[in-house]
From TrEMBL, chain A:
Keywords: Heme, Iron, Membrane, Metal-binding, Transmembrane, Transmembrane helix. This is Succinate dehydrogenase cytochrome b556 subunit. Membrane-anchoring subunit of succinate dehydrogenase (SDH). The keyword Zinc-finger does not apply. Heme binds at H70. It comes from Marivita geojedonensis.
From TrEMBL, chain B:
InterPro entries: 2Fe-2S_ferredoxin-like_sf, 2Fe-2S_ferredoxin-type, 2Fe2S_fd_BS, Beta-grasp_dom_sf, Helical_ferredxn, SDH/FRD_Iron-Sulfur, Succ_DH/fum_Rdtase_Fe-S, Succ_DH/fum_Rdtase_N. This is Succinate dehydrogenase iron-sulfur subunit. Pathway: Carbohydrate metabolism; tricarboxylic acid cycle; fumarate from succinate (bacterial route): step 1/1. GO terms for biological process: respiratory electron transport chain; tricarboxylic acid cycle. Its EC number is 1.3.5.1. Belongs to the succinate dehydrogenase/fumarate reductase iron-sulfur protein family. Gene3D superfamilies: 3.10.20.30, Alpha-helical ferredoxin. Keywords: 4Fe-4S, Iron, Iron-sulfur, Metal-binding, Oxidoreductase. Part of an enzyme complex containing four subunits: a flavoprotein, an iron-sulfur, cytochrome b-556, and a hydrophobic anchor protein. The lineage of its organism: Bacteria, Pseudomonadati, Pseudomonadota, Alphaproteobacteria, Rhodobacterales.
Length: 112, 242
């Protein structure tokens, strides 16, 4: 029998795990490229021209998305497990974080 | 009149020696009909060899839980119209437990883990002493009260993917039981509880997927109870007192 799991907490768990795996796969590559800064600056510059490609730009967007999702997923987990809050308190806290993030990001984008 | 005459019900049947096989039945549809009514109709009218378990029929005894369309549910209080997929329904034995036969799961591992989680009362007084008064509004008591309506139906245990992946994991019901006892002012051995739930397969194995809380038929919150145990064991580890 196919098991039904699609409730919000399980989906949040899945998103946290998958984003973590994605970041874990990316980080060795990231450090390997960064190592060229020490060993072979010309090679690093050549590699960095790849970032002009639209596909790589899209991948960068994905990377920032993974990072954001994993960061907030971690905060969610810390709050869930370490703060003995009631469900409405958690909902209000999450809404406050989301609201402040929206406002601050809007200001940041205007500044850029 | 019901919207349909018949339901197409697939029952997963088998046992320890035979893998589960689907068998389909046509069951008359009624306006008011629980999943347990449907299973009983099959056993009484279509195939008397169908094995299942129930007792109270009013959501108190925790005997009749089964998988219904992939979700563990108390079948005596689950209305067919709430779970029907088109005109069909699939019923199977609870997940994460051995199958005795057909829809009857072997609950032994579930109850063994209650014992392993130190889910028993450690008295502070003997029967010859006066009963200790309990403050019903104390924070500790409120935390204990939140979990005491568990009916041991094993829906949470069956819903939990951590149990599925780790046979040693004590599971949501046993850990919630440990948390209620930990918050019981009349419990004399809270260290024994923390010892039992902090080892291999204890509360720290929980990945906070929340299926226990999402599917508990009594709307209890084992996820928060397990989080409470995580905090209590961590505090004790760092030398803090409750």
């Amino acid at each position: 029998m196919k098991v039904a799991r699609a409730h919000p907490l399980w989906l949040a768990y899945l998103l946290h795990r998958l984003s973590g795996l994605g970041l874990a796969l990316f980080l060795p590559l990231h450090f390997w490229v960064l190592s060229y800064a020490l060993n072979d600056a010309a090679k690093l510059d050549a590699f960095l021209t790849l970032t002009e490609m639209p596909l790589v730009k899209l991948a960068e967007f994905g990377l920032v998305f993974l990072l954001a999702v994993h960061f907030f997923g971690g905060l969610r987990l810390i709050a869930l497990e370490w703060l003995p809050w009631s469900a409405p308190q958690k909902t209000w806290a999450a809404a406050a974080v989301a609201g402040s993030f929206l406002v601050s990001t809007t200001f940041l984008l205007q500044a850029i | 009149m019901p919207e349909r005459d018949h339901l197409t019900v697939t029952v997963l049947r088998g046992g320890p020696d035979a893998p589960l096989q689907p068998q389909t039945f046509e069951v008359p549809a009624y306006d008011n009909q629980t999943v347990l009514d449907v299973v009983s109709w099959i056993q009484q009218n279509a195939d008397p060899t169908l094995t299942y378990r129930f007792a109270c029929r009013v959501g108190m005894c925790g005997s009749c839980a089964m998988m219904v369309n992939g979700v563990p549910r108390w079948t005596c209080r689950t209305h067919v119209s709430k779970v029907l997929d088109g005109n069909t329904m699939e019923v199977g034995p609870l997940r994460n437990l051995p199958v005795i036969k057909d829809l009857a799961a072997d609950m032994d591992p579930f109850f063994d883990k209650w014992v392993a989680a130190e889910g028993r009362h450690h008295p502070t007084r003997s029967r010859d002493e006066a009963i200790a008064p309990i403050d019903p509004v104390a924070e500790e008591r409120q935390a204990a009260n939140a979990g005491i309506e568990c009916i041991n139906c094993s829906v949470c245990y069956s819903a939990c993917d951590t149990v599925a992946g780790n046979p040693d994991y004590l599971g949501p019901a046993a850990l919630q039981r440990a948390w209620t006892l930990y918050n019981d002012a009349k419990d004399a051995d809270r260290d024994a509880i923390l010892d039992a739930v902090s080892g291999q397969g204890g509360c720290h194995s929980c990945h906070s997927m929340g299926s226990c809380t999402a599917y508990c038929p009594n709307e209890l919150d084992p996820l928060s109870a397990i989080a409470g145990l995580k905090r209590a064991t961590a505090k004790r580890f760092f030398g803090g007192r409750k």
